[in-house]
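ugh ok fine here u go
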Amino acid sequence: MRSRANVRRATGSTRHVTHGRESENIAENIAWVEIGAGDGGFYLLYFSAAGDCVADTWHPSLDGAKQQAHVELAIEETDWVAS
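structure:
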């Protein structure tokens, strides 16, 4: 089971690097995120408005994934819903 939250706003607090190069501000193009369990932890999956998963991060705990979503996208605990 996954949890989903719509993005409130990109905070600009995270730098994204792809293949060793800084990429465009991915966070500004994210419409929603989902958290799902995997590989002994939790993935924070970033989705565009078109529904494409454009990035992910891995976290050892559910709280860690939610904290990253809060820091980067201003998502609050009450924003999360089961999907």
